[in-house]
Specification:
The chain has 271 residues and is α/β, with parallel strands linked by helices. It has a single domain, classed as Nitrilase/N-carbamoyl-D-aminoacid amidohydrolase. It is 21% helix and 29% strand. The protein has a 6-stranded mixed β-sheet with strand order 5-4-3-2-1-14. α4 (152-160) packs parallel to α5. The longest helix has 13 residues, at 67-79. The chain is globular, with a radius of gyration of 18 Å. The relative contact order is 0.16.
């Protein structure tokens, strides 16, 4: 099997609470583009700024039998793509900020955001699933969600488990992530596809959120292969070679993983 694949993202501007409209909006924005992997933003089907726990619960769905997951399963089957997308998951009485991964053969798995950001703590519990690398056949895909980027252990854990690529559904409001993901890719020699959203939500007085866009794909050497604008809906596809992510050598003498000093990586050491 060739190590060369196509990956893409759709940078959307969802209308809060309009789930059916947002699902169609994402698919129409993507159009007839062809890719092996498509990454959609965090909470792409609902919008982000919930006013109450009851509202968040009313817009959450079970996985994998909820409306959004079934929509994505159909899309993946019809297009032949693997899709990673963010949504609010309901598991009994507990809500999670989650992402699902689906392929042409159906539902593959899910991930629950580990590091909950700011007001999300009012609605979502921290994820309780391990960082997992999913085998999509053509690639080994790790998932993290938005604020998970701020913790380098996230990407490192996925890379050590053999991830070729990290899919990163996001709703970014802080400016640092696009540049920081360059470092995450360099640290681990992996590809990363960040799918962010654009637009502003001000559903709570005095709490305006403007999302920064700048969805991007970054290669294992830290090169930004494509970066979207900060304020427009866009969809892009790039070609990547997974063999580069599977080679952890930096030069003839240094291997990024073999050179790790696990004997020194501990707290409380004394010089």
């Amino acid at each position: 099997m060739s190590s060369i694949i196509k990956v893409g993202f759709a940078q959307t501007h969802p209308e809060f609470g309009a789930v059916e409209k947002n699902l169609d909006r994402a698919r129409n924005l993507w159009g007839n583009r062809q890719a092996d992997l498509l990454v959609l933003p965090e909470l792409f089907n609902t919008g982000y700024q919930f006013k109450s726990l009851d509202e968040a619960r009313s817009l959450s769905e079970t996985v994998p039998d909820g409306r959004t997951t079934r929509f994505l399963v159909d899309w993946a089957r019809d297009s032949g793509m693997t899709i990673v997308a963010g949504l609010a998951e309901r598991d009994g009485e507990i809500l999670y900020n989650a992402a699902v991964i689906l392929g042409p053969q159906g539902f593959i798995g899910k991930f629950r955001k580990a590091h909950i950001f700011d007001s999300e703590n009012e609605f979502f519990q921290p994820g309780n699933l391990p960082f997992t690398v999913f085998d999509a056949g053509f690639a080994r895909i790790g998932i993290m969600i938005c604020f998970d980027w701020r913790f380098p252990e996230t990407a490192r854990t996925l890379a050590l488990q053999g991830a070729d690529l990290i899919a990163h559904p996001s709703n970014l409001v802080l400016p640092h992530c696009p540049q920081a993901m360059i470092t995450r890719c360099l640290e681990n020699r992996v590809y990363a596809v960040t799918a962010d959203r654009v637009g502003t939500e001000q559903r709570i007085p005095g709490e305006s959120l403007t999302f920064i866009g700048q969805s991007q794909a970054v290669d294992p050497d830290g090169n930004v292969l494509i970066r979207a604008s900060g304020d427009r809906e866009e969809a892009h596809v790039v070609e990547i070679d997974l063999a580069r992510a599977r080679n952890k050598q930096i030069n003839g003498r240094n291997d990024l993983f073999a050179d790790r000093r696990e004997d020194l990586y501990r707290l409380g050491g004394k010089g």
